[in-house]
């Protein structure tokens, strides 16, 4: 359906055709009004722009895509927990028991702080032998007992076979964690062969107050000798 022309222009056209015999003064005013009217009528805006006729090369412009949020970034899998062999780290760099050496709970605490700083995204479990509270110096014994009471450090129940090592391995196997220890866990390798898988054990080195942690693969256990 053709859009009707504007009313003002329609009236001028009718006056032009109907007023041929009007007075000269009126005709002069009519001619002046016709000269002021636009020569080309503006195109009426279509009610539905998406249905407008194509222009240019004949292809209708593609409608703008609706605004959408960018796809979420891929979420990496959670980093595996760390299971610290606390007694092993407390003895790190200390003289052996036979030479009168004692484990250092302060050194273990420093190692845990370093790991929490370097691996803030990981859960950390600290396991110690039941004998640690008795092996440390008398000044440190209350701190060990307080940590055990608060649950920041755990120890195996009395009578547990394998003592702290067995609990370390059990927790790591349960949570899929990485063990932090310099022990080879030789007595447990047969029952838990994953101990020698790459990435399952991390070694610890204490040098001049700095703790350094690196991946390691425990040395294989010696084969059992036949009798």
- What is the makeup of the main sheet? 5 strands, mixed
Spatial separation of the terminal alpha carbons: 108 Å
Structural class, by secondary structure, is alpha/beta
**Cα-atom Rg, whole angstroms?**
44 Å
Fraction in helix:
25-40%
**Low-confidence runs:** 46-52, 66-76
**How many helices in DSSP terms?**
7
Name the overall outline. Answer: elongated
Compressed to H and E, one letter per element, the order equals HHEHHEHHHEEE
Describe this protein's structure.
The protein is about 30% helix and about 10% strand. It has seven helices and five strands. Strands 2-1-3-4-5 form a five-stranded mixed sheet, with helices on both faces. The radius of gyration is 44 Å and the shape is elongated. The N and C termini lie far apart (about 110 Å).
């Amino acid at each position: 359906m053709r859009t009707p022309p504007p009313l003002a222009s329609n009236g001028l056209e009718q006056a032009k055709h109907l007023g041929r015999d009007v007075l000269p003064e009126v005709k002069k005013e009519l001619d002046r009004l016709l000269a002021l009217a636009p020569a080309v009528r503006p195109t009426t805006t279509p009610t539905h722009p998406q249905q407008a006729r194509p222009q240019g090369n004949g292809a209708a412009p593609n409608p703008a895509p609706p605004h959408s949020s960018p796809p979420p970034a891929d979420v990496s899998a959670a980093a595996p927990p760390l299971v610290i062999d606390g007694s092993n780290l407390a003895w790190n760099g200390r003289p052996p028991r036979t030479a009168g050496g004692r484990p250092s709970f302060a050194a273990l605490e420093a190692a845990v702080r370093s790991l929490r700083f370097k691996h803030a995204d990981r859960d950390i479990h600290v396991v110690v032998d039941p004998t640690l509270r008795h092996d440390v110096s008398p000044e440190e014994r209350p701190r060990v007992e307080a940590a055990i009471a608060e649950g920041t450090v755990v120890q195996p129940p009395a009578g547990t076979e394998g003592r702290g090592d067995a609990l370390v391995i059990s927790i790591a196997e349960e949570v899929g964690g990485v063990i932090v220890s310099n022990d080879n866990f030789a007595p447990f390798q047969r029952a838990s062969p994953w101990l020698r898988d790459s990435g399952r054990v991390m070694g610890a080195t204490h040098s001049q107050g700095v703790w350094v942690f690196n991946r390691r693969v425990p040395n294989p256990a010696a084969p059992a000798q036949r009798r």
